[in-house]
Amino acid sequence: MSYTPHGHHLIAGEKIGTETKFSSAPATGQAFEFSTGTPELVAQACVAAQKAFAGFSATSREERAVLLETIADEIDARGDAITEVGSAETGLPEGRLVGERGRTTGQLRLFATHIRKGDYLDCRHDKALPDRQPLARPDLRMMQRPIGPIAVFGASNFPLAFSVAGGDTAAALAAGCPVVVKGHGAHPGTGELVADAITAAVKACNMDAGIFSLVQGGTRAVGEALVTDPRIKAVGFTGSLGGGRALYNLCAARPEPIPFFGELGSVNPMFVLPEATSARGADIGTGWAGSLTMGVGQFCTNPGIAVVIDGPEADRFVEAATQGLGAVAAQPMLTDGMADAYRDGARRVGEGVGVKALLTTACEGRDGAPYLFEVSAADWLADEVLSEEVFGPLGLVVRVKDAAQMQEVAESFKGQLTATLQMDDGDTELGRTLLPVLERMAGRVLVNGFATGVEVCDAMVHGGPYPASTNFGATSVGTLSIRRFLRPVCYQNLPEALLPKDFLTA
Ligand code: NAP
Question: How close is the Cα of 240 to the center of ligand 1, in Å?
Answer without folding.
Answer: 5
